Amino acid sequence: MIYEMRVYRCVPGRLPALLKRFETATLKIWEKQGIKQAGFFTTLIGESNQELTYFLAWDSLAEREKKWGAFMTDPDWMKARAESEADGQIVANIVSQILAPTAFSAVK
């Protein structure tokens, strides 16, 4: 199992719109595509409180490539993204890292 950590830094004031999009649209599309989330977090203390950090669980890089590619081109996703950004851009930038658990990690 490998994990992907994604950090979305929002345009100031737009974090609520991002959270709403995940809750009402993105997670349903992920379920349809077989994408497994492993946790979502907002930042209480850190560089910015306008961030959403989440983890995805993948069996392999090949699985990630296939399922993430299908998600990004899913017509339901493209529609949900466009609708959620009707009032303006939500995310200023995204950082993504692919992580492998260590032998002593509680998460495998």
Automatic annotation (TrEMBL):
InterPro entries, sorted: Dimeric_a/b-barrel, NIPSNAP
Xref: SUPFAM superfamilies: Dimeric alpha+beta barrel
Domain NIPSNAP, first and last residues per copy: 3-105
One Pfam entry name: NIPSNAP
Signal sequence, start to end: none
Protein name in UniProt: NIPSNAP domain-containing protein
